[in-house]
Protein: Glycosyltransferase family 87 protein
Organism: Nocardia jiangsuensis
Amino acid sequence: MLLRQLEPRTARTTAEVIRFALWPLAVMTVLHRVFIKAVNGFVTDDYRPVYNASFQFLNGNPVYTANFDSVDPHYLYPPSGTLLIAPIAIIDYEKSRWLFILLNAIAILIAWYLLLKLFRYTVNSVAAPALLLAMFASETVINTLVFTNVNGCLLLGELIFLHLLLARRDLWAGAVLGLTIAVKPTLAPLLLIAAARGQWKVFVTGCGVPLALTAAAWPLMVDPEKFFTRVLPYLAETRDYFNSAISGNAAYYGLPPWLTLGIRITMALIVLGSLWLLYRYYREDELFFVCTASGVLLTAEFLLTSLGQMYYSMMLFPFLMTVVLRNSVLRNWPAWLAIFGFLSYDKWLSDRWQDVGRNLEYLRITFGWGLLLLVVFCVLADRYLAARAAGTLDKGLDQDWMRTAPDPRGPVSEDAEPAVGAPTPVGEPGPATANGTAATVEPAPPATEVPAGHRP
């Protein structure tokens, strides 16, 4: 069956043309990123301090010995993360790094598949190669593999968590999220999504797993207390290098503290406004609410805390995928200008205009995250004001064309599996009748003209 899928054929439809064109581009891009660019590495090496700390842990030596006065990558994982990641130092550094690159690549590929399934697409749809190509062309995936850090595994944990949360398998969802928090607390804000949905059991395992792993690691380490007395205070500080958070760029450019605080408070209020509108009017639209609210929370975390790095943006993939939904807040050009800012692998450093190029390169991530949060708030606020003026707030914020449209998570090509409840295409065999023959669906009468300003 697989060989028949690979058999060269001439495309007969536009969807097939796009699929046939995108799959080779996507596959070759994946192979290049994993086996050439990642293995080659870069001057920035996130894996070396992790490997060294794991080696010291396995040999009963102190782990938290990094010199925080240098700009080199430091080992910042908690004791629970040290326990989980320690096996990487069983073999020599080079082979260990290659295996870790492969582990992250596999994790990203599984996350890609789960992201398709979350929005009811199949690998036969146009969305499959398009999404795969977009992911592996992004800065966040490229540098995760090149720098060799754990972000790919965190993305997989996020997708598994979202699937289990929507299926209301709360304890398992919390356990998966807890494993990611045990290594890095990047996804901890997603606990608020569970709280908003009343899924309190998520907190049992979401908090219990990292606590249990910390308790297990504590007696096995020489200096576990130094994570809390030395590493956490460093993490709470704002550094002015490799930091795209508002506070990081403000420190780099020398902004006065009152202005930095004012910008952060303003953006925090915008985030709170978006989250309130999502909770108040979209809580029952489960997929849209969970993915959009999680994207807002994580973007706010990257932008408003003491440290935000560009490749954290990988965790926003589920939010960006909501663009396929009819009521998505990302169906406008400012949203994708923002997304370009923090996902593009392009470098804007210029030999001719050095100051301008440096500013564009250093600020585009911060502006991208900030603009994305502004877009979300403006779209939701505009919908709210329009619904209030029309007296339809009791029906939600979506316009009629959003509510009555066919399921936007249906197939994007003729080979994709139809979504549950999707209408049978005109002229195609319908469900079998009582005598075993398939009924043919008759063409529907002409649709009523859609009013101006409400085009689907």
Observations:
- Confidence is low (pLDDT under 50) at residues 405-456.
- Residues 240-410 form one domain.
- Strands lie at 429-432, 438-440.
- The radius of gyration is 24 Å.
